[in-house]
């Protein structure tokens, strides 16, 4: 009888624990805000807003112009790859196969072709960035034979004007580019570190951090630089010193040889008015499924205060991992672009 009562007690305790965990899980997931809009697409490489009501989405083969938010395809360009938009929104750069094509985003007509590197056998991720005045296009390609090279192209005269080599002994290739809002600096993220380039002098002026970053964002006033990676690092651009860091539970301080892979899965974005910082809320999940979470694992999103990184809201992200985080030009929408879907939330909820 005593053994029976003990067994009943153990079973009861187990039920309480399981119920508590289930309740906690349900409470946790209810905290996540669900997207207002979800588009199901295939093999997304890159995406950006052409204007508040128009989105460009590129895969390996083509780029489509899709009306936002109803996802109606208005135009299709015959090349795909990786995208960048001219500051005055008159040119769309599409990079793939070592080549960059410039298109008029209104007419869809090709305006220029930059042959940056010999065509390879595969499509490699390219990083493209226009300078704030639109005169320079910076180009790099995630390809080990290209090394740590950033090409600078004169947009108006359609010619290469310089090539910058980082000469970092620990890096093999470049994975992210971004100009500062004043156009004086180009931030270059490699698979090992992040560097600052003086645009006028065409020289590398300093190393910002000895860790890789696959996503780079400046605050609109240029006072803050945010680097996405294993940790989210935020720098004061007056001194280029670390202002604060966002860490994640379970992440170890030690560097790993494959840290750059995680860095490419941790996108960051700052809203046009500088009020919101969007980051992953947790590191990319594995491929395993959760008992409490039906369907594929998700990488949730945090909306934070850029001043100190404090989390304000949690959003339900794309399955498996995030690819791109971006705000609409008017700052009203936040988009999470995954590998096969686009999710959108209203920023002012």
TrEMBL record:
SMART domains to which the protein is assigned, alphabetical: WD40
Segments crossing the lipid bilayer: 6-29
Lineage per the UniProt record: Bacteria, Bacillati, Chloroflexota, Chloroflexia, Chloroflexales
Pfam families: PD40 (PF07676), WD40 (PF00400)
Protein name as annotated: WD-40 repeat protein
Domain of life where this protein originates: Bacteria
InterPro entries: Quino_amine_DH_bsu, WD40, WD40/YVTN_repeat-like_dom_sf, WD40_rpt
Keywords assigned by UniProt, alphabetized: Membrane, Transmembrane, Transmembrane helix
Gene3D superfamilies for this protein: YVTN repeat-like/Quinoprotein amine dehydrogenase
């Amino acid at each position: 009888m005593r053994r029976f009562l003990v067994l009943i007690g153990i079973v009861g305790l187990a039920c309480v624990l399981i119920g508590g965990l289930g309740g906690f899980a349900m409470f946790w997931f209810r905290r996540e805000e669900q997207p207002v809009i979800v588009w199901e697409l295939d093999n997304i490489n890159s995406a950006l807003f052409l204007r508040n009501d128009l989105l460009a989405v590129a895969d390996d083969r083509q780029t489509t112009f899709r009306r936002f938010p109803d996802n109606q395809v208005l135009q299709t360009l015959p090349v795909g790859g990786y995208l960048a938009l001219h500051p005055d929104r008159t040119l769309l750069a599409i990079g793939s196969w070592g080549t960059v094509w410039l298109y008029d985003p209104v007419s869809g007509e090709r305006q220029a072709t930059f042959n940056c590197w010999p065509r390879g056998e595969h499509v490699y991720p390219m990083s493209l960035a226009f300078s704030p005045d639109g005169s320079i296009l910076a180009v790099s390609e995630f390809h080990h034979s290209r090394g740590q090279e950033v090409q600078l192209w004169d947009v108006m005269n359609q010619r290469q004007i310089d090539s910058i080599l980082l000469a970092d002994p620990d890096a093999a290739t470049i994975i992210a580019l971004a100009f500062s809002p004043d156009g004086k600096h180009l931030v270059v993220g490699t698979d090992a570190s992040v560097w600052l380039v003086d645009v006028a002098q065409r020289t590398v002026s300093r190393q910002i951090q000895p860790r890789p970053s696959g996503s780079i964002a400046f605050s609109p006033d240029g006072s803050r630089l945010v680097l996405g990676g294993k940790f989210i690092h935020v720098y004061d651009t007056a001194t280029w010193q670390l202002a604060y860091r966002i860490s994640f539970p379970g992440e170890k301080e030690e560097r790993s040889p494959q840290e750059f892979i995680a860095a490419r899965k941790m996108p960051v974005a700052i809203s046009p008015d500088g009020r919101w910082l969007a980051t992953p809320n947790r590191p990319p999940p594995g491929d395993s499924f959760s008992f409490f979470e039906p369907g594929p694992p998700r990488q949730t999103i945090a909306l934070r205060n850029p001043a100190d990184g404090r989390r304000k809201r949690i959003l339900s992200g794309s399955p498996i991992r995030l690819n791109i985080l971006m705000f609409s030009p008017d700052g009203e929408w936040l988009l999470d672009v995954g590998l096969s879907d686009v999710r959108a939330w209203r920023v002012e909820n």
